[in-house]
Records
---
Amino acid sequence: MNVLILGSGGREHAFAWKIAQSKQLQNLYIAPGNAGTANCGTNVNISINDFEAIKNLVWEKDIDMVLVGPEDPLVKGIHDYFLQDEVLKDIPVIGPKKDGAQLEGSKDFSKQFMQKYRVPTAKYATFTKNEIESGYEFLQDLNPPYVLKADGLAAGKGVLILNNLEEAKNELKNMLVDAKFGEAGAKVVIEEFLHGIELSVFVLTDGKSYKILPAAKDYKRIGEGDTGLNTGGMGAVSPVPFADEAFIKKVEERVIKPTIEGLNKEGIDYRGFIFIGLMNCNGNPQVIEYNCRMGDPETEVVIPRIESDLLDLLQGVATQTLHMKTYSAIKEIAATVVLVSGGYPGEYEKGKEVTQLHEPKDSLVFHSGTKSDEDKVLTNGGRVFAITSFGNSIEEAVNKSFASADKIKYDGKYYRKDIGRDLMNL
Ligand code: AMP
Ligand code: GLY
């Protein structure tokens, strides 16, 4: 098979690394990819949102399957674009159509969906500009902290958590009236704050059956002890100690089954990954959000723990034969530590030369934001590498990643040295 992966981060490198091991693979292309994916296949420098260029590439390279990494092309309808095109319509796209991608693309849609299909989630209401007074009243009846969410995609910045009622009202006005998040904030979901520990559960589905992939916990803040600004993710651990068999069973019965059934009842043919962001509230899962894709950096711990041939599983998704595919995950613990550029998530410089890249021998070095320049590798993003290691304990796995992180050199390198620490004594 010839496969095209869309995206350029650590998630796509982990996908490329895994798919390159499949016996079913002939040629692998990554668009646009990075310096790491270039070691697994051929990078093609086109944008993930340039559907016409993607069409030409698929035609030219005789691509048999397209795996979409990020949410943006899915929410914009790349899968629908393929289905509506005479040339492309029989080429499977892994990732939902526009209707299914609404699970991530609209917070209001996903909350309505959860309510309709009785998926446990925080109490909420949605408001538009004309309903701002009702929004203020709704806030008054909630206990702090207050959670405000822009309905649409806002590059991961659309969720505000505020401790003070006046501040919350002010931000509601900023979003609805002053268009703080542009069109994405034309509707705002206000919801109850959930207390607990967060984790993510990943599901691969062909619309009928599903496989529950390993769960993971990520670390979103830039600073140690979960302080400072939010980032795309500074590290991840899989499995999550408190997400034992009994907890995952609850997630399956209360969240996964009603979600798949709900999609069917809505007439949504969903083929791809569902990322379920959960809060463990005293042993009971509550859904914080759905995403229509895998997480980054969670993929860099989830995918290495999958023993089965990923391409074979994706074939199962494409042909709705996932129930016939074998799936297993390894028991060992995987941890990933993300190396970022100095200044991230604020302003940072790109183009720093990376040296000693091949020094780490005990870890998988996934590239998140790099590019090749002749025989050099240069930094090319806020997140630069995700370094994944295995161990029999979280401590062993993260320590291997820290040792590898120390070996790689570039100007301004920073990483959190407390990844996994909160999970070590649970
Ligand atoms: P989201 O974009 O919906 O994932 O929200 C971003 C982050 O905000 C989540 O990962 C949580 O840490 C936090 N968050 C969102 N909704 C809630 C909630 N209802 N209660 C507590 N924390 C929340
Ligand atoms: N790591 C969180 C995300 O991918 O959205």
Note: The pocket of adenosine monophosphate (ligand 1) is lined by residues 122, 147, 149, 159, 191, 193-194, 198, 277, 288-289 (CB under 6 Å).
---
Amino acid sequence: MSDLTRRKFLRTAAATGAAATALPACSSVNVATRRQSPVAIASANGVEAVRIAVERMQAGMRPVDAAVAGVEVVENDPKDSSVGLGGLPNEDGIVTLDACVMDGPSGLGGAVAHLENIKNPAQVALKVMRRTDHVLLVGAGALEFARAHGFKEEDLLTEESRRAWLRWREKRSSIDDWLSPEENGEHGTEWFEEFKDKTGTIHLGAVDANGQIGSCTTTSGLAFKIAGRVGDSPLLGCGNYCDNDVGTGGSTGRGEACILSNGGAFIVQQMALGKSPTDACLETVRRVVRMTKVKRLLDDKGRPNFQVKFYATNKQGQYGAAAMYPGKFAVCDADGPRREDLAALYEQR
Ligand code: GLY
């Protein structure tokens, strides 16, 4: 870190009311050293998304718009069952999407929750940010708003996600009137198990060559969730947050844990206090562990029995990610798009 960057960080920390005595410890891993390159970090399903985001920032696009352009490829991908088209539906077989965006330079954000029939909720969230005086629109109102802005409605349920839902629905109970093939004496499959309790999502944090910041999170939420359930992804401060003086923080995985820990905002706060992105994410995972007390959420070793992943970038272009259990994340900087291992609090599940 150059002296210039060091002085700039100290001014930033003081301006944000942070403890200016602490320098950000350079992360031992995942330090982007070439500040002339924009940086984008995302969940592991976002390798193409971070490539696009960096390409757009190199062409001068604002980071929040580059983030939304990046996640669009995942929202449009029918094979990603955690986001947009092909996202797994709720318990009634209806796909509902959540997303939010945040723009560092303006300090503004926009979000939609429980949005049906529009495959690019992050783009609708951008419109909420830019074309309303509100931050969050939900349900039928969000859909009306999207229609007003010319978004086209379509059926987001693919053949594969419909079959996964039907399998789950038929197997849910033996005391209702839905019959699975097995209950009818036929051969069934267990392939839907891979979708059970599935959380996916894409978060993307973006920092351009001038240290301007933007971020975005988009999801279809928890598979087969109770109708009306909304996770962390559309909630600013939870599944996504950014502060143009500090950096970005975002989450994928069990949304309930991220909501209860205010994950996104907590990451940014930790970086403002001097932690590296990786350490800020790890501290957030520890916070989730501290806050997880009920038995049904703990394994036989007393550890949380779910996965949650956190991602961060700072204004200096450093990045990092951490999770409860091992996993990967996507990043793109001057070295190009790739997946890297995130820091895991527990080495084995
Ligand atoms: N993290 C996405 C969700 O729980 O909805």
Note: DSSP finds nine helices and 13 strands in the chain.
---
Amino acid sequence: MKPGAPPMKHYLQFKDLRAEEYAYLFERTRIIKRRFKNYERYQPLADRTLAMIFEKASTRTRVSFEAGMYQMGGSVVHLTTGDSQLGRAEPIADSARVISRMCDLVMIRTFEQERITAFAAHSRVPVINGLTNEYHPCQILADLYTYIEHRGPGGVGAGAVECLRGKVVAWVGDGNNMAHTWLQAAEILGFTVHVSTPGGYEVDPAVAGVSDRSCWRVFRDPMDACRGADLVTTDVWTSMGYEAENEERRRAFADWCVDAEMMAAARPDALFMHCLPAHRGEEVAAEVIDGPQSVVWDEAENRLHVQKALMEYLLLGRIG
Ligand code: CP
Ligand code: NVA
């Protein structure tokens, strides 16, 4: 790393950063987003290179990291399992040693969390989790920023992260990577997650790694989870890597579709979010995702802005 660079920090799980660091990141996001909207050039990452490793498909993560890095003056290298030696059993530790000698930052989307942990353990540069079977921290970063933008007092301003405290997020669907990350965020930022999953698809507190039992409650009936919620959110019934279970999951999840009735049980000003891609008529009704409470397009766009703030923070530390 460059002399004067901040101490190396990875972003492998949501809990890798503290509440106060999230407050900082959201404030930087606001500034970086405003500059972008005004076509103001902001290129603090000139001469820096991001390696992006995709072992699973992606649209949003690829475009947001790639566009974000170019917009900040840097460049990217895109690798997949199929077109690199990762797919031919080169050890992950060796890949990390080599890639991190040539690039300044690495983003990985892969299967087991232990793959990214192993990569980070042998990396000379910061590593970002772009989704694993267990977590999707960059998505929750964007979701929280989007919530603050819409419901924070005066949008995103100083202390805006405080507006999350005491809020209720309803999670309807699979106890998956998104659900586990929501639980981590709740513990750090002081809100509660109402979780409703079909039997057999529950969240695993050990995977979530949360110790505060008060930050989440389990509901058998998704309607009950949505009651009084400030935000209702869901995700696909079958995540990447679990396609063999598709038919079984379709049957198990039939009652876990966020529809207008569930939204009506939430607070009148409740927002709807979905990390996308979405399947209308499965986990969410078209009238909800395309309806007035849905902020899914802002949520997707904010991946770009929050990740630019994250890359800036990991590479340059605090600005100003
Ligand atoms: N939400 C999300 O991560 O989307 P992609 O799979 O398209 O990257
Ligand atoms: N839970 C989904 C999220 C996709 C962005 C998956 O892992 O496939």
Note: The longest helix spans residues 296-316.
---
Amino acid sequence: MVFIVAIDGPVGSGKSSVAKAVAKELGFAYVDTGAIYRALALAALEAKVSWQDHEALANLAESLEISFLPSPCGQKTLLNKIDVSQKIRTEEISQGSSVVSQYAEVRSRLLALQRRLGEESKSGAVLEGRDIGTVVFPHADIKIFLSASDEERAERRFLEITQRGEPAVYAAVLAGLKERDERDEKREAAPLFAAADAILIDTDGLVQRQVIEQIKSHIKKVYQK
Ligand code: DC
């Protein structure tokens, strides 16, 4: 049986960096499920399919080949075999992924892919997203829900964008993050919330290493090689 670690949380809660590090240090597979919704939003944009057209989006989701390749920086995202890792990180696609992921029919078409990616790993997998512990792997071995204040999350996101050499305005980053949170939390299909059996970690004031060590110590309590 594959050991599944579910890490959920809102935008900028630090999920990605922490999930990548935990997976690498334990030799587990890393699955960034947000990249799947981002790839769909990009594919829709390129195919001129509206982000509001749920039926067309569901059909598009069915026809796409979304895959991942391990890379030194975590993972490359391939859309129909083309590397779109950079293209899916723009602010436009961030908002688009949150829009396309609202629809139940879109989510159901992408569920099997997420489960397969988790289950095909040899020893264990760390999956990060919004509904991993509630929908994708409701029986995950460990569920973590990360949170942080709006301001700290916006600060992290701002740094992430500017460190990539892209321009950003803090107030706009904060507003974009709140807009996305609201959509992710209020949608009817698999909204963002902590599973009842999730371990809650408030990352405000913690450095990344502290969060990684906390998660690893929770895993070590239950993981038997
Ligand atoms: O984690 P992220 O910021 O890359 O995710 C982009 C969007 O995808 C997010 O705003 C909501 C959606 N998403 C989701 O609905 N369910 C997931 N498991 C992962 C992401």
Note: The first helix runs from residue 15 to 26.
